[in-house]
Amino acid sequence: MRSKPVIPRLAAEDDLNRACDHYLITAGSDIAEAFLIEFEYVTGLISQFPELGSPRYGFESDLSGVRFWLMKRFPYMIFYVEAEHGIDVWRVLHGNMDIPAVLGDHE
């Protein structure tokens, strides 16, 4: 199977930067780097197997095609849509957030 390119939206890039800043301040550069490594690993999996992510929040938010993948080591979820051109990463959200409300404001 051929992998698709991963294309983060601006909101996803902002989420990723905020999470990295948080880990840099609270846990140090090694943990922030581990977060980014896991993000890269997960997006690599998603690019090869986009159907593996859960569509749960897509259904709850009435957003057709939205899936998420829960990171293993960190309490973040990567929300994405498989598009013809690649994997459109919408958000990288902490699990304690009001996910349906945040996804409802996706534009």
Keywords:
single chain, alpha+beta, YaeB-like fold, four-stranded mixed beta sheet, 4 helices, 21% strand
Characterise the protein shown here.
This protein is an alpha+beta fold. The chain has a single domain (6-104), classed as YaeB-like fold (2-Layer Sandwich). Helix content is 45%, strand content 21%. The protein is built from 4 helices and 4 strands; from the N terminus they run βαααβββα. It has a 4-stranded mixed beta sheet. β3 (76-82) and β4 (87-94) form a beta hairpin. α1 (10-26) runs antiparallel to α2. The protein starts with 5 loop residues before the first strand and ends with a helix. The mean pLDDT is 91.
CATH-assigned fold name: YaeB-like fold
Poorly predicted regions = none
Structural class: alpha+beta
User: CATH superfamily membership, which one?
Assistant: RelE-like
Number of helices: 4
Distance between the termini: 31 Å
SSE series = EHHHEEEH
Average pLDDT, rounded to a whole number, is 91
The rough form would be described as globular
Helix content: 40-55%
The CATH architecture classification is 2-Layer Sandwich
Q: Count structural domains.
A: 1
What is the total tally of β strands? Answer: 4
